[in-house]
């Protein structure tokens, strides 16, 4: 169980960091937030993979397609984060 948690954190860090490298612009977030973006992206990528291909993790936890899905999911989550977390100003 501890190995699974560490693996999820490491994959989340890698997916989140790669997503931050690919998405243009400056993202002001900590390493913890990068890991969180990557972990949430892993779930999003896994869900989208299941919806598209109707397969799940029966073949094991670490698969190349799963890591690619984590990266794509992290990009989606990061773009949504940038879109919806912007500062709003009141003009009037």
Automatic annotation (TrEMBL):
Keyword Cell membrane: yes
Regions that span the bilayer: 29-53, 65-84
Membrane topology summary: Multi-pass membrane protein
Keyword set, alphabetical order: Cell membrane, Membrane, Transmembrane, Transmembrane helix
InterPro entries found in the cross-reference section: Transgly_assoc
Subcellular location: Cell membrane
Domain of life the protein comes from: Bacteria
Assigned protein family: Belongs to the UPF0410 family.
Name of this chain's protein: GlsB/YeaQ/YmgE family stress response membrane protein
Origin species: Cellulomonas edaphi
């Amino acid at each position: 169980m501890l190995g699974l948690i560490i693996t999820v954190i490491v994959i989340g860090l890698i997916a989140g960091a790669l997503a931050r490298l690919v998405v243009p612009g400056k993202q002001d977030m900590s390493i913890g937030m990068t890991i969180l973006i990557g972990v949430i992206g892993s779930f999003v990528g896994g869900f989208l993979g299941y919806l598209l291909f109707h397969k799940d993790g029966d073949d094991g936890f670490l698969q190349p397609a799963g890591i690619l899905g984590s990266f794509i999911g992290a990009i989606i989550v990061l773009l949504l984060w940038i879109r919806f977390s912007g500062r709003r100003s009141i003009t009037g």
